[in-house]
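[Q] Does anyone have a clean structure-token version of this?
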Amino acid sequence: MRTSGGAVVTSTFEELAPALPNEMAGLRRKLTQWLAELPLDPGSTHDITLATYEALANVATHAYPRGNGWARLEAKRAGDAVTVTVTDTGCGIAATRPHQAGLRTSGGRGLVLIEKVTDQTDIDSGENGTTVRMTWRPAALRDENPA
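[A] Here you go.
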């Protein structure tokens, strides 16, 4: 993929980091740099960054209660969509987790927030880890290549 200035823009991004708060912040910065290469509006960039950081923070806070582990961050642009996937091999999300904002849980409202700012969210969780796949279809990407 090329920008209007001719620079090559990578349509995929992937990083692996220890599931520690400062490492998650570093992944967020790297994702923000990658997103800056795409023709996104500031609102879409904000939503993608916010939701991704919430997913990464959940890994650092909840995935590995008995020790350290890893978080994988993958992002790709395909057509009019940006998809970000956060994966861990931790303990998984309890099937009984409250699914409404405001209910008291061991954490905050991260998953609810993620679902509010994405066009689609898929969460696959079990005893071998969790994958959170978030998709956005920003207007700026739809308008770039009109049909």
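[Q] Thanks! Anything notable?
[A] The helical segments are 21-36, 42-63, 110-117, 139-144.
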